Amino acid sequence: MGTLVLSNVARSFGDVVAVRDVSFTVPPGTTFGLLGPNGAGKTTTMRMILGILIPDRGVVSWDGAAVTLPVRRRFGYLPEERGLYGKLKVRDQISYFGRLHGVPAPEDTRRADAWIERLGLGEYANRRCGELSKGNQQKVQIACAALHEPELLVLDEPFSGLDPVNAETLHSALRTLRDAGTTLILSSHQMWQIEDLCESFCVIADGTVRASGTLAELRDAWPTRIVEVEPVAAPLRSVLEAMPGARRLPDADRPTLAYEIPADADTAALLRRLVAAGDVTRFERVDPSLRDIYLRAIGAAA
Amino acid sequence: MNTIGIVFTAEFMRRIRSRAFLAGTLIGAAGILVLTLLPTILGGMTSSSSKNVVLVGDPALTAQAKKALAGDFEVASTLPRLDQAPTAAFLDAHGKAVAVAVLTTHPGLRVTVYARDPSQFRESFGRDLATVQIGLALGVPAARVEASSKVPVDVHDVSGRFADAAAADAAKGVAYFFVILLYLSILLNAQSIMTSVAEEKTNRIAELLVATLDPSRLLAAKILASAATSFIQLGVWVATGIVGGRAVTGLLAHGAAATSGAPSPLGTIDVSSGEILAFLAFFAIGFTQYGVLYAAAASLINRTEDLGSVAGPLVIPVIIGFFLAMVAMNAPNDPRIVACSLIPLISPFVMFTRIAVSSVPVWQLVLSLALNVGSAALLAWASGKIYRVGLLLYGRPPSLKQVIATLRA
What we know:
- The complex is a heterodimer.
- By secondary structure, chain A is α/β, with parallel strands linked by helices.
- Chain A is built from eleven helices and 14 strands.
- Chain A has two domains: 4-218, Rossmann fold (3-Layer(aba) Sandwich); 223-286, 2-Layer Sandwich (Alpha-Beta Plaits), CATH 3.30.70.920.
- In chain A, the strands form three sheets. In chain A, strands 6-7-8-3-9-10 form a six-stranded mixed beta sheet, with helices on both faces.
- In chain A, helix 3 packs across helix 4 and helix 9 (234-242) packs antiparallel against helix 10.
- Chain A is elongated.
- Chain B has two domains: 3-44 and 169-408, no CATH class; 52-115 and 117-157, no CATH class.
- Chain B has a five-stranded mixed beta sheet, covered by helices on one side.
- Chain B starts with a helix and ends with a helix.
- The A-B interface holds A 14, 47, 50-53, 69, 72-73, 75, 77, 79, 81-88, 96-97, 99-101, 144 and B 1, 3, 6-7, 10, 14, 18, 199, 203-214, 392, 402.
């Protein structure tokens, strides 16, 4: 198992700069979320990791060395848009991609059957891929990418277009791979789908890294916290308004006093002041969610 | 198995199992059968395209022959005798003259023709000089005139390439047959390569493949798989052309024996190992040239619907090559044809035809092979670069400027 390191990689297409400057490190056996809006440079970054595109500048390394073709054969890739031969049968398709990554026969067929079983594709094993639904094609694609037990599996929008049942099946398959030690890199717009899967994240916008680290690190770096207080009473509001750096947030759909306060504010002291000012039925310090962090990073980019 | 082998096997099996392959092979076989029989069927309707002769013989005889031939031939000159058998240089020395007819009345009228293209003369001389025979035989009983209305004609190839006119006929049949094979094979399989590349690009499979193997190896595996399926097709077509052709020709000859002495080219096909080697060499070269070109062109499109627009221009040299090969059958040593047999993309058709129907100087053969191998390597290099970039290029098709920039990169 190796560590993936991207150091100041950049890539342009003619006059269009897709990736300006991206650096991050993915430790071995971890799951890494690559977040960003459309056109942020996620797919280009992934393609540079896989050697499909060569960076104009910067270095991609695996286990301290350049990513060569033999190394790439130990990687797996699930592109955002489905890449399957429509006329090839499911089992043959999965076996083929396994062989391309060095899985010998008949091991390729044995593993293909295991993945077909795991992903619930048994009844489609001898059907042509073009006849399958989008969700089932996605499952076939996952099996193609994972059959050779890759050291690094790069998945571009893996949950795109999947219904909740199929999304859960995919989730389960990815957890299995993670538990087996595969390093995973996922991109997604739907953060809730990857938040519990990933250990660290990188938010890209406009081809540059806006935020990166584990969720705890990202939260630590977040400059504010939100406190929610009930009931909505004037004395309590006065205490919150008097706090340096506090900013009232728009009213929620329930009667709550919601304020954004500096991250380093002494919330214990604040609670004591609130209790002294009146009856407090609810006091909650809310950490920023991944979505908040993402939106803030993107907003900063805008 | 290495990646080329894996892709080759997968591509080969995909092609061989496809309906398009089956249909193409069967339709091609039927087409081969029809096209190779055409010369036999149409043979009786055509006349020689070589109209110029030098008549040699007794002045009285050549004067009568000149009158008899006036409608069909232009008699360049008449000579009382020949000191030795005419050579190509002798024919060239008589301007546009392409044949020398030596006439002799002993032991009856007999014609000996020395020609650059012997296959064209036997029939026309035999037919046209019959009237001379009748004139000369004036006073002879009708039964004898009729019996001797077929003038014996000995035809000699001045280059010594063919033993007799039948061999020259057969050579032309071989050339015709193999040029059609080459034409069909290149067209069908280059199109197949194109479709395969376009499918992989539009389905985004190319991304997966390029992540795993070098694009040039991918392209090489595709060309090899296509060539392998093409050889199978060729086998079917050759078998159809020779076995089927002989059978049908045999039947035709059986029925037409009384009315026509014209042998079918197919009926006398005797392919030499040299011709087979030449065919394989030019097939491999032509296939590579067109295969890489079609693959590169297909890598630039974004929708399979656009295939036609890029395939169109690439078909033009194939068609030109085919038609020039047809011309080369009757004028294999025409300087323009010789020049065309050196031009890459066209020469696989033209040079092969020249090899089959005439004696090609070694230097021309070597030069043609060198130019073709060189151009195939150059095309493979350029196409490989375009293919690598084109596979991952989505959106607007690249401009010519961008393609040139890609080649320079």
